[in-house]
Write a structure and sequence with these properties.
The structure holds two protein chains of two kinds.
Chain A (H helix, E strand, L loop, with lengths): L1 H14 L5 H5 L5 H14 L3 H5 L11 E5 L14 E3 L5 E7 L5 H20 L5 E6 L2 H6 L5 E5 L7 H10 L16 E9 L10 H16 L6 E6 L4 E10 L2 E9 L4 E7 L4 E7 L2 E7 L12 E7 L4 E7 L7 H11 L4
Parallel strand pairs in A: 3-10
Antiparallel strand pairs in A: 1-10, 2-3, 4-5, 4-7, 6-8, 8-9, 9-14, 11-12, 12-13, 13-14
Chain B lengths: L1 H12 L6 H20 L2 H18 L9 H30 L9 H7 L4 H8 L3 H12 L4 H8 L3 H38 L1
Helix pairs in contact in B: 1-2, 2-3, 2-4, 3-4, 4-8, 6-9, 7-9, 8-9
The chains are: A alpha+beta, B mainly alpha.
Chain lengths: ~350, ~200
């Protein structure tokens, strides 16, 4: 009865409307106006996948966004984040809340994974390859940069052989720390090839490679989707050393930066960051509480820019580690100014 | 339609901006009528729809199918209309303060154009807040279920239902008051005539 009364009241109100929506909107069409603005915007809009693939293939445990100086960067003000400046007083690194991964980005990564695995299975350790997947959804996500890269890494089990590989490939040098937390031993180390096409679609060699692989895909048999080209490489721009104690681990990494790089180091919302001065160098230290689900899984992270060598160093551990800030500071003291 | 819409959303999120035309085609008319009812002006609604659809395109990478795309879009439309109504009120206050002498009334045609609802409802609606008017528009005129309104307003369906009940009471009270005031006015007129 009440429902009926309510319905009648609503209907009475409705009858007081002096416009008939169907009639009023029948000829309404702003598609052209909207699409004109949308298409103008889409030309300027940074592609999602381009952002995700800033540094193709490198196993990033802490996501870092590299932006060339002068480009706009999202603002933030909360005190839980820190900024590091260079000698001229310009901000060259800041920490910020990580953007939530969209369902689409996850969907894209999931869709890409079988191809990535397939490429890795076809490479020998130490081989680096470019590949193209004939998949409209993935390629439209980043129409200008449809080529992916993968490297089958070689893990060096002794620091000596790892050091030799860093030297051979002119990789950023990580010195063996003299002070390690008790019980931690060198587990393995590897280098990662320097990315050859930092300008991506503005690079002639990249465009040539892209055209070659796409051409292959066009003349391939129906159903064939993956097209691979192995690349020669001799220089690395990333070094990774892992130390372990049982199931706990500690990583030291060093990465070559582009000139005038401006970095954003992402942290979980509940993490706290602070600036720590070590041997006259500013470093950032991020402490995390254990998190459920997605997010960065380190308990402690400490990083800094070596401006002389244009390198970003990072030290981090696993989320269940028993290490504290001082353990990481001790290692950093060893590494800063060790070259 | 839903499947085609889902596919278009995914394609636009993947960078195919041309596919957005399908989304514009599917939603421009309902959003236009909604804006018209919220803003009370056809001209403002026409501009608002375009801004809303462009805004939605800019934010589409953030859309997650946890809520329906329609609710997500209406949420953008709601906030856009709310901002327009608030800024219009600010301007009116400013105009009233600074240019009281120059203030001109709407022409009869403009007044008619602004009047979307018949007299008692039209005046009673003016006494509601923009939030209350939105609730009424979505529920009564757009016939949206409480669950969907909850998605648009970030509230539980129960909370929306209660608020809707209170809004309707307020509206009915206003309408009764207006009828009484009108009766009183006629009564005064009659008395004056007699004197």
């Amino acid at each position: 009865m009440h429902e009926l009364q309510r319905f009648t009241q609503d209907e009475n109100l409705k009858q007081m409307s002096m416009i008939d929506p169907d009639k009023a909107a029948r000829d309404f069409d702003v598609t052209d106006h909207v699409m004109k603005r949308v298409l103008a915007l889409s030309d300027r809009k940074p592609r999602l996948a381009a952002r995700l693939r800033m540094r193709p293939g490198v196993a990033l445990t802490s996501l870092i966004l590299f932006v060339v100086m002068g480009a706009s960067v999202t603002g933030y003000a909360a005190s839980q984040y820190v900024e590091l400046q260079n000698a001229k007083g310009e901000t060259v690194l800041k920490t910020a809340k990580a953007e939530e991964t969209t369902d689409f980005a996850q969907y894209l990564a999931k869709r890409m994974e079988p191809y990535r695995q397939s490429v890795l299975s076809q490479l020998n350790p130490g081989e680096y390859a470019a590949y193209y997947v004939k998949d409209d959804v993935m390629n439209k996500a980043d129409a200008n940069n449809p080529i992916q890269f993968e490297y089958k890494r070689v893990d060096y089990k002794s620091f000596g052989s790892f050091a030799q590989e860093m030297k051979r490939t002119q990789a950023p040098v990580i010195h063996e720390p003299s002070r390690l937390p008790q019980g931690y031993r060198f587990d393995y180390g590897y280098v990662y090839p320097k990315f050859m096409y930092p300008q991506m679609s503005s690079d002639k060699d990249y465009v040539r490679l892209k055209n070659e692989l796409i051409k292959q895909s066009e003349s391939a048999a129906k159903g064939e989707k993956l097209f691979i080209k192995k690349l020669e490489w001799d220089q690395a721009d990333f070094s990774y050393a892992r130390y372990a104690k049982g199931s706990d681990y500690l990583v030291i990494s060093a990465r070559t930066l582009f000139p005038d790089s401006k970095l954003t180091v992402f942290q979980n919302e509940q993490d706290t960051a602070e600036k720590v001065s070590i041997k006259g160098s500013d470093t950032y230290y991020i402490q995390s509480e254990p998190t459920q689900g997605a997010g960065f899984k380190s308990k402690n992270r400490l990083g800094w820019i070596d401006a002389d060598r244009r390198l970003l160093f990072e030290i981090y551990d696993n989320s269940a580690s028993k290490l504290n800030k001082q353990d990481l500071v001790d290692i950093a003291e060893d590494l800063i100014g060790s070259h | 339609m839903d499947e085609q819409l889902d596919d278009s959303i995914k394609r636009v999120q993947a960078g195919d901006a041309q596919q957005y035309a399908f989304i514009v085609g599917a939603f421009q008319r309902p959003i236009f009528v909604y804006c018209w009812r919220m803003l009370g002006s056809r001209q403002e609604a026409e501009d608002a729809v375009q801004d809303i659809l462009v805004r939605a395109f800019e934010k589409i990478h953030m859309y997650k199918p946890r809520v329906s795309f329609s609710s997500w879009l209406y949420k953008i439309a709601y906030h856009h209309c709310l901002n327009l109504i608030r800024s219009r009120k600010r301007q009116q206050r400013l105009r009233l303060g600074l240019f009281r002498q120059n203030l001109t009334a709407d022409s009869p045609a403009q007044a008619m154009e602004r009047r979307l609802f018949s007299e008692p409802l039209s005046k009673a609606l003016e006494r509601l807040t923009a939030e209350e008017r939105n609730l009424l528009v979505l529920r009564v005129f757009e016939e949206k279920p409480f669950g969907e309104i909850g998605e648009i307003l970030n509230k539980s369906p129960d909370a929306v239902k209660k608020k809707f009940g209170r809004t309707k009471m307020k509206l009915q009270k206003s309408m009764s008051q207006l009828k009484e005031e009108e009766a009183c006015m006629s009564c005064n007129g009659l008395l004056k005539t007699k004197i």
